[in-house]
Amino acid sequence: MELLIFILVVSGLLIWLTTKNKSKKNKKKSQPKVTIQVGFQSGDAFHNPDTGDVTSNEEGGWLINPKSTFPLTIYGINRQSAVELKTLLEQAYTSSVYDISRKISQIIARTNLRCKEIDDYIKKFKPLYFRKIEQLKQESAEWPVLSDKDREDMLVSFRKIAIDSLDVRPYCNLEYLFEFEPQDFTIDDSLIERYGYDLMQFYVSYADRLDKVFIVPADNYRRQYFEKLAEKKLAVQGTDIPLSYVLNTLTIKEMNEIASDLSIKPFTRKSKAIEYLLNLPDLSERLRKKIAFRELFMLVPLPEEFSNINLIDISKSWKYVNEIVFLLAMTYVNGGYALNDLINKKQYTEYIKGWEIQTVGEDACPYCKRLAMKEYVGKNYPKVPLHVGCRCTVSSK
Questions:
Q1: Which of 49, 81, 158, 397 is the right S-S partner for 77, CB 3.0 to 4.6 Å?
Q2: Pick from 354, 344, 362, 359: nearest CA to 396
Q3: pTM to 2 decimal places
């Protein structure tokens, strides 16, 4: 009898333990595993977060994403242009920043708009950047005795040290952002009005080689731009190019082949070959057997009315604009993704111990690294971007 009671007690205990373990497993299964991360993503990860409609502020500017975790304020444009800008920025969610950058650059070139948040960053950190470079010059024993060329070489390392010394470093080319900001934002307005933004951007990209002949086959994507430049009298094509420049595109071997039927000693120096060939009365016919003149283009200087415009300054100003475009678009998109996750994570709060800021890359700035070391618990969700051009993300613990 005692044995029977013992067996019943043990059986009951086993049944109770089994039921309890199943209950625990079921309870554990009912709690979802939560991993939430925000950041600069592309493709189908998210679709167009609702960052709010374009809204005016008291200072005459436009908030283009008032609901975002990082609102951006634009000045110098009307509502229509602000809406146009926002519409383009929205396209980056399903394509990429690079796909829309050219169109945004055109808006900036046309309107000379400004972004308050980017201007605020430049105003604060640009003086620190130049102050550090001057400090490095003063501390360098070599600097006073270096030639201009050697100083330019040393400035490359000085610039890097100066950038690395900044507490906040947006993900962009800070050298262009600090050093290429134009004194006059209307410097390119007259050229854009006359020739259009796309064509002028193409012209400026080659304008440092006005004495070079470019060989552009008909199936090359650049051909349409060179032909447009020729139509606008900003380039010459084919037989309109002086033969001395055409000859300069050839190799010594090719020039020897042109004169192969002549009783002369083979050329060994390019300058002597060009000098001799230019005196041949049938040089054009000889060249036609060797090259296709229609493929040849050479840029010419701007018309006299634009003689006061420095193309180097324009080239620098457009590099500056490209950095503005990238910072604007990246901050806008990252703020939208962050807003989506900020809204979506609320349903998981009870299962999450805390939050972590994840920095991106070895070159993350000191400011982001400091904030990433802090504890974020409960509803204390850290908002990113932490600054303009920030790539940090947020994940759950």
A1: 81
A2: 354
A3: 0.77
